Amino acid sequence: MTDPAAQGVPADAMARLAELRPGEPDGLFTSDLSVNEFLLVREAGFRPLGLVLGSSVYHVGVQLGRWGKNMELEQLTNALYHARELAMTRMEAEADQLGADGVVGVRLRVEFREFGNDIAEFVAIGTAVKAEDKTTTWRNNRNQPFTSNLSGQDFWTLVQAGYAPVGMVMGTCVYHVAHRRMAAVLRSAGQNTEIPEFTQALYDARELAMARIQAEGRRLRAEGIVGVALDQLHHRWGGHTMEFFAIGTAVRPLRDDHTIAKPQLVLGLDR
């Protein structure tokens, strides 16, 4: 079990987790799952333990892109990735403190604060759960609780199909798209025409984000990544600098010989 204090989890959070005492006669759990999600997670064989969260208020440094060049802004990419990792690690530490096997329904968001245009809070929040089946190992290959951003319904379907989440994986790329020169703008004025330099810039940025999410999945020894979302975020950088952010849930089969059963035909339903 990791030391939550060493991960930056505050003492107040430790006290809150200690008061939950899930499974004890006078204990209770907290959860942000909807009623339907809660019931499906219980039916999948998992007991909610408590709401867990991680936060990181991060100063995002400055990096200038060249006006007429497509380029990744690596300093900004690294800042956004590291800040999210800090929030995720603290959420996982809270789940570990509760003895959880995983965290479901994880939401990961970024909120720029009024402290300054370059200061943002990165927040990860989800519901820690414990498996009732003690014969299956649900933790990932790092002996950490799994994390998943799947809905309760999708989580239930995944488990029923014989798969387990191993962790949320993400890839990010902050990219500066070159400005067009005036002569190029005038040549294309009033015409339907592709702008190749813009197409290539956006293509390259998305590819970098996708390659990084796949690399994280391989490090977790996953079979694949489901529920992938690829978003384009402008934050406060202006129109020519944007973040491409990919996130999903890496999964593995529960058994090496796993196969998904074919659906059975039900005859006579059209009579």
From TrEMBL:
Gene3D superfamilies: Hypothetical protein apc22750. Chain B. SUPFAM superfamilies: YbjQ-like (SSF117782). It holds the Pfam family YbjQ_1. Belongs to the UPF0145 family. This is Uncharacterized protein YbjQ (UPF0145 family).
